[in-house]
Specification:
The protein is α+β, with helices and mostly antiparallel strands and about 70 residues long. It is about 45% helix and about 20% strand. It is elongated, with a radius of gyration of 17 Å.
Length: about 70
């Protein structure tokens, strides 16, 4: 969803609730300036980006991503 900064200012509560379900891009003067998204979605994206960085020998046995998500 794309909204203007003025629309966000006017209806901040509405967009905070929607951010839990979808990403909201905020524009000002026709240019994208920010993205409002769920905090938990960012955690999953971060975990996905880290997969494969740690050498297999240094990583503990088991599914690290599943273990981290279970602790939410």
């Amino acid at each position: 969803m794309v909204i203007t900064a003025s629309e966000l200012r006017t209806n901040i509560g509405k967009y905070l609730l929607l951010a839990g379900k979808q990403e909201i891009y905020i524009t000002k003067n026709g240019k994208s300036i920010a993205k409002l998204t769920s905090a938990s979605a960012d955690r999953v994206a971060i975990l996905d980006s880290l997969v494969g960085i740690v050498p297999k020998e240094a990583a503990p046995q088991g599914n690290i991503k599943a273990e981290r998500l279970a602790h939410k």
